Amino acid sequence: MALKALDIFKLLPKTNCKKCGCPTCLAFAMKLAQKQASLDQCPDVSEASKLELAGASAPPIRLVTIGDGPNKLEIGNETVMFRHEESFYHPAGVGVMIADTLDDGALKARIDKIRKLKFVRVGISMHANIVAIVNASGKAEPFAKAVQAASALDLPMVLMSSQAAHLNTVLTTFAGKKPLIHAATATTLEAFITLAKTHSCPLTITAPDLDQLVPLVEKARAAGLQDIVLDVTMPSISKTLQALTAVRRMALKKNMRTLGYPCLVTNSTVDPLVNVSECCMYVAKYAGIVLTELDNPEQLMPILTVSQNLYTDPRKPIQVEAKLNAIGAVTSDSPLMITTNFSLTYYTVAGEVEASRVPAYIGVLDTEGTSVLTAFASDKLTSEKVAAFLNSDEVKSKVSHRKVIIPGYIAVMSGGLKDESGWTVLVGPREASGISKFLKTTWANA
Ligand code: SF4
Hints:
alpha/beta; eight-stranded parallel beta barrel; five-stranded mixed beta sheet; 17 strands; 17% strand; globular; binds iron/sulfur cluster
């Protein structure tokens, strides 16, 4: 729970010396409470106060890093129950489990499939961002071989085995890649804590329910372990969702440090459609890592899409650059459509133009990332603004005709735009799905 400014103030020297750049200690405390300053800006704060402030101001859910380098995965450090309260910050790790019982050919095929699980949506690249190797054989050698093969993916790894000795063998080679060790239980906790501390890797802890999980986490914390992930996979989806929600709620609302860690869920549901639906729900309700046995593109894409949608900041719509874009082999006679710089709107229109195979220009207006109707209703997409764009050098230098296609939803703008710009205004379809037909018929005869 965030400290209030007055609580912080009580721990400061109260000399108002201004060395921190603030006029008073109280002003500095207020900045600290708003996370606009850091404690080390005050050179005179006592060690005891530092300890107290550092502990109390730690995030309610710890940020845990898995992997190293540019592909490392950071999970946790979330601050709200619901995205609309502020934002979710660290997208869930979505990954595929690989059993070490696969023969060489099947192992290679699975890894190749995982490597190809990459998609571009609304201009953003997304992909399976973690991989789990399961010691299903119960033997050391196949496990080491599968980990070696999976390491070629250069993704953060989850090493899943009940055998500390097998994990230790693998970690001797791969500890530098900071894999997540999975998973300590009541019977293996001490050995797994030793493993995690020896190799400086994050550790997953699991138990049949949260009541049994809490004392295990307490023991790990008491042993000095900080980077912990909680595996809360339960026997049914409802129980798993309950556990995920309870962990988030207890961490944020009750400041319960023993549950202040990101959660991991595994999903082995056989029916792929049900598996995908469950994974999407886990991403939405609050899993930090979701591991599935599915590996087909059409199965992973919906899960990654849910994650992408949830983990964009609702206060900052994803935007594309406002400019004149050419789709296909355009000429100066090609049609010109206008739309807004809301990423989803632009890529929907661009996709339909591309599919129509009619080369066209798309003029993107800066509407602060809002969609067509929202922009029009809030005066961010006005006839004056569109007219200024149409008569700009950017458009004049590339388009020789004077006919513009506006979205069907803002047909009411057509008269004003014609007067303002001197251009002929064609009202396009209301839905992007009608663009192809419009270009091939209405535009062709205009
Ligand atoms: Fe107060 Fe420390 Fe700032 Fe001085 S440097 S005004 S003691 S908070």
